[in-house]
Amino acid sequence: MNALSSAAVRNGGGLIDDPLFAQIAADLYDTGYSVIPKALPDTLTTLLSLSQQQLNKRDYSEAGIGRLADHQTVSTIRNDEVCWIDGNTGGGKAWLNWTEGLRHYLNCHLFMGLFSFESHFAHYAPGHFYKRHYDAFKGRSNRVLSVITYLNQDWQQEDGGELVLYQNDEDTKGISVLPETRTLVVFLSEKFPHEVLPAARHRFSVAGWYRVNDTLNGRVDPPR
Ligand code: OGA
Ligand code: MN
To answer: Is residue 19 part of a domain?
Structure first.
């Protein structure tokens, strides 16, 4: 972690001019997405990797699609396993701090109104995938910004497992991102369909979503 980003984390971000946050904001403003290799601060990456490595098989659960009552696991669409992140591990705590700094920064500079954040570790065993999808669920799209980073050293082209980010429903080519450690991907959740191609290796990622506060008519959303 460089001096600026650690200062940003300590102060909850916002007013500190972190060059990485600035690049993410500029990319989002220009194109709605940002893909930056070697982005995540080293210390944060190390802590996240340690926490991920300490997870046991039983800490993970089969990933689902949809939320609350809609939640179901559909192994034809995705078959990764996930572990939700709380502040109880060093890596989880550092990640939630860092994403909180980014939240403040984007709210200050792009007026995004990001309200809360949820995130999980994901493990894709060899051959596992997540078919083309949007992160914002139909009709209840309060996930507005997706953030993904990776914890895989020396990922090669032949290992597969790319994240493919499509520009719109018509795009069949997309932009391929290798899931190499420290690569950071941020995109508007409602705008970019994307998929995870099967990999030849175990593939570890951390995915998170910022949500806006859609509390309406006394129904509290996001649930707390
Ligand atoms: C997701 C997702 C992408 C990745 O969890 O919704 O699209 O590269 N993950 O792991
Ligand atoms: Mn997704």
So the answer is: no
Ligand 1 neighbour 128 (Cβ under 6 A): no
- CB of 196 within 6 A of ligand 1: the answer is yes
Answer yes or no: is 18 within a domain.
Answer: no
Residue 83 identity (one-letter amino acid): C
User: What is the domain extent for residue 165?
Assistant: 37-63+79-211
CA-135 nearest atom, ligand 1: 6
Which CATH number covers residue 135?
2.60.120.620
- What the block records as the tokens of 156 is 């090669």
> Per mean pLDDT, which range of 32-36, 47-51, 60-64, 120-124 is the poorest?
60-64
What is the reported pTM?
0.87
Give tens-digit pLDDT for 67-96: 545 555 667 888 888 999 999 999 999 999
- C-alpha Rg value of the chain to the nearest Å: 17
CA separation for the pair 187, 142 (Å, rounded)? 14
Which residue, among 142, 75, 91, has the nearest Cα to 112 in the 3D structure? 142
Q: Is 185 in the pocket of ligand 1 (CB under 6 A)?
A: no
Ligand 1 nearest atom to the CA of residue 82, by list position: 5
- The total domain count for the chain is 1
Expressed in angstroms and rounded, the spacing between residue 119 Cα and the centre of ligand 2 is 12
Contact (CB, 8 A) for 32 and 192: yes
75 CA to centre of ligand 2 in angstroms: 15
What separation in Å is there between the alpha carbon of 129 and the centre of ligand 1?
A: 9
Q: Which tens digits make up the pLDDT trace of 92-139?
A: 999 999 999 999 999 999 999 999 999 999 999 999 999 999 998 655
